[in-house]
Every structure is written in C-alpha cells, then in structure tokens.
Amino acid sequence: MFSSRLDWAVGPNPLARLLRDKRSSGAGILDLTESNPTAAGFEYASARVLAALADPRSMRYEPSPAGIMAARTAVSEYYSKRVPEDRILLTTSTSEAYGFLFKLLANPGDEVLAPRPSYPLFDFLAALESVRVVQYPLLYHGGWSIDFETLAGRITERTRAIVTVNPNNPTGSFLKKTELAELSELCRRHELAIISDEVFSDYGFKDDPSRAGPLTEVDDVLTFSLSGLSKVCGLPQLKLGWIVASGAEKLRKHAFEGLELIADTYLPVGAPVQWAAPALLAMREEIQAQILARVRANLALLRSRIGADSPWRVLDVEGGWYAVIQAPRIYTEEEWVLTLLQQDNVLVQPGFFYDFESEAYLVLSLLTPPEIFDEGVARILARAASASA
To answer: What is the pTM of this model?
Structure first.
C-alpha cells in the first residue's frame, strides 16, 4: 500500500548498529564525521542571531512565492549585487531546491546526471520525485576532474540536467573554467540544464584563477545555482536556501515562472528567517573565519601526520569541510570503519557512503574540534601500524 519511490525496508547498517551499541554502553567516541557547525565548538553571536529572528514584521503573513524582497535583496548583496533579485527564489534548503528543480525539469522516469563520488542524498531526493540518477565519474590523478567522455556517453533522450557540486562534497574539488566551457557546450548540444550545488563555495583554501567560481552569471545555458544559510552562515537549523536562475533571458524567465508556480503551491519558507536574512548574511564572515581556520589547521595536521613514506595518502582537497584519505589495503573499507569504531572508539565514514568506485578510502570531517581530530588521527595511524606489525 506504500509508494515504490524508496526502499521502505531500509534499516540501520552495520556501522550505525555498532555506533548505537557503543553509545548506549557509554563509550567515549571520537567523532571524526562532525558536519554540524553548531555542535563543533564555534562562537556564534547568539544574541544578534536571536534578535534578528524577533523582527515584528514576522507577525504578519505576506506570502510571496519567490520570497520576501528584503531577503532576496540580501542574497543579491551576498553575490555583490551581480545577481538581480528577479533571478533569486528562496527555499527552505538546498534539498528542497533540488526537489523544486526536479519537478520543473523532469517527468517521472526522466534522468539527471550527478557526479561520483559525491553526496549520497541525490539518489533519495531524485527518487522522491520519481527521477532517476545516472552517475558520471570524477577522476583522480593528483587532482580531481570530470570524465567528460563517460559523461557524454551517459546522456540519453531522457536526460534533463547535469548536476555539478562546486566544490564537491567530499572531494573538495572545484569546477574549473575549462570544465565549465566543456560542460556548457555539452548542455547546449543536448538542450540540458546545469544544476550547480555551491553550498561550500565560500570555503576555498586558497585562491586559484583556474576555478570557475559560482555559476550565477552563465548566460548561454539554463543554469541553477544553489546555496543557503546552512553552510554560508554555519546555521543549518535556520532553514533558508536559494536558487539563482541564469542563462538566456527567454528560457530563464520561463523557468523562473515555473519555479514560482511550484513555490506558490508550497509557500514553504517561514517569515522569521526571511526577515532575519539580511542581518544573518551580514554576520557570515565571523563564523566563516572560524570555520576556515579550523578546517585549514586540521588539514595541515593531517598532512603533517601522513608523510610521503606513509602507507596512507591524503588526497588533494581545494576546499569544503572534508578530507579523504586512502587507507592501506590491510582491511576493506567496511572493516576499517568497523575496526576503528570497535577497537579504537573512532568514528569515520567509508568511501562507499559517497560512491567511491574503488577501495579503501576514509572520509574525515575537518570541522571536528582540533583535540578530537588530533587524537582520532593518531588512533587511526596507530591501528594501521598495529595491524601491520
């Protein structure tokens, strides 16, 4: 009697079961998967955040499908006014933005192309819209790049859009200008849209003129750039995301009208966070500075611990909140994460959570408090040394 969109029989995996048992026994877990900045020990301007949410205008219901103009103006200012308000539509999150775009672009059974490895939520978001995800590979040769030959070969008559994550989660790789040119040409040829997930775009570790940057000014292909307060301001509990529509004017306007119709059906974004958006976005540099300092320091520590002669390898990462390490093949990925948790009380994520095509890779959150990250990395390396002895 239930929908077939998802596998309703899905239960906890072995790692989740072991973690539950460990925590119920009172074990002190070193969690190297922390993705919630509000739980990672950063200092927030709490009084100012709460004051922004107390705007008296929130007491009046003024529905607007694309979002309250003051909030859209704040998003425009976030992009240094290079993006006008009439190309910005507010959502409760980037997840909802994906749902809106899948509704806009695809019929049930249609396909979207998404990178591999990448964030595993795509499959679930697409399945809820009865859309099929077809993966295209990212290749690693000292740095990450799109495998355009394979990508082009996976376009079919049912393909509607190509998703890019810029920078990627968890690889931390940015889309390059040369890749954008090739991607745009491919989309023009096949009349496809680009969906660009840019939630981590403020967290590059250093400047690189070869990067494409946010795709908010693409003018020749229908393009949708996604972001939101969750990463931009480190405030995942305040649900506000946005879609920036770009491309040829006629097609872009038609797409935006469709998005407004979808949004008008749901009217999902709460007034308090919309009225608070200007103040919250104005505070973003305070939390971003703390996050960037943390992730850079943890990455430097990780690289210092894993030298050139180590059986471990830290894969190149350009930005974001995560690092990927290649583990010695003394265990499978599943054995690695279960052994580390069972024997060393260290929680990491396996590469197969992100659809890495080979083994063995572990994903560590650079957002982790430094003392936990330091001790966790030490235990990981000690476990490998012990197993090899």
So the answer is: 0.96
Domain 14-43+285-388 in CATH 2.30.110.10: no
Distances (CA, A) of 69 to 74, 94, 241, 280: 9, 19, 14, 15
pLDDT at 370 over 90: yes
Distance, CA of 316 to chain centre: 18
Residue 224's identity, in one-letter code, is F
How many other CB atoms are there within 10 angstroms of residue 201's CB atom? Answer: 22
Confidence of residue 4 (pLDDT cuts 50, 70, 90): confident
Choice between 384 and 341, residue whose per-residue pLDDT is larger: 341
Region 173-189: what's the mean pLDDT? 98
Distances (CA, A) of 184 to 75, 191, 223: 25, 10, 9
Please tell me what DSSP assigns to residue 289: H
- Evaluated on CA atoms 182, 217, 163, 127, the torsion sign reads negative
Q: Can you tell me which residue has the tokens 């090899």? A: 388
**Residue 6 scores a pLDDT above 80:** no
CATH tag for 55-282 (out of 3.40.50.620, 3.10.50.40, 3.40.640.10, 3.30.1360.70): 3.40.640.10
Q: What is the per-residue DSSP string for 177-240?
A: HHHHHHHHHHHHHHT-EEEEE-TTTT-BSS--TTB---STT--SS-EEEEEEHHHHSS-TTS--
CATH 3.40.640.10 in the chain, residue ranges: 55-282
* pLDDT tops 60 at residue 107: yes
User: 10, 228, 223: which is closest to 124 by C-alpha?
Assistant: 10
What are the structure tokens assigned to 292, written together?
A: 């960037």
